[in-house]
Amino acid sequence: MAAEPNQPYIEEGLVFQPKFDASGLLTCVATDAATGDVLMVAHMNEEALRKTIASGEAWYYSRSRQKLWHKGESSGHIQRVTEIRMDCDQDAIWLRVEQLGGASCHTGRHSCFYRALSAGEQGGVTVSFVDANRVFDPAAVYKKGH
Amino acid sequence: MAAEPNQPYIEEGLVFQPKFDASGLLTCVATDAATGDVLMVAHMNEEALRKTIASGEAWYYSRSRQKLWHKGESSGHIQRVTEIRMDCDQDAIWLRVEQLGGASCHTGRHSCFYRALSAGEQGGVTVSFVDANRVFDPAAVYKKGH
Predict the structure, then answer these.
(1) How far, in Å, CA of A51 to CA of A55, rounded?
(2) Which of A113, A131, A133, A135 to probe by mutation at the B interface, max B CB count within 10 Å?
(3) pLDDT, tens digit (0-9, with 9 covering 90-100), for A114-138
(4) What is the pTM of this model?
């Protein structure tokens, strides 16, 4: 978070003490190991983090479905983890991944971040699509019942 | 979050409808525009987001200090924003930035993510420093009283 001083042990130590929030979660950023593009922001509970470290594939905790989530379990689009980093205050995780199938977003796109924001007229915000081509058709990949 | 279907308007539209959480915040990831390295994960309230879009410099909301935070206001290490993206469900922001002074972390390092995690013995986790050289001395930059 780049904010709180006076945490020498947490910040300068080599002891793993993840700081889960009130819901038991950490924030996790996955980037494309080849390009550095941010693919998605998601959350991990302790089990997801441990499974990710142990398996080398990304596991998250789905807040909407309230369950552990092996990324790619429905779509086949697994994330192979090439590096795991944690931040200064141990409440955020960065995964460098190889995205199998090329798409991390459930909309079928490479990244969840397929829209750019810029300053519009009269203090407004302009939204535009960027790198928004679909790699797969979500209707074909996520069958009913999933 | 790559999870919730059936949000065609939020996901496929060009209308800016940021989904702030119960605390009025979005999650924000800042990456180095040149290298793709994740520099930090922080939060933005509506004012921080609007100031970032309007000014081209990164503003966040500090949860620990409970105040708007112009990144670099104490250290001089401003983040110049080269691109702003939002994710599919409009609750996360990705900033590509040029980090003035080279260090984004309050510990004096380039990135807040200066430690790697890997599988240790007996199911444990091994922590190791990576890219952990200090660009500045925090004690010299953050004077007492700040």
Answers:
(1) 6
(2) A113
(3) 999 999 988 889 999 999 999 988 8
(4) 0.92
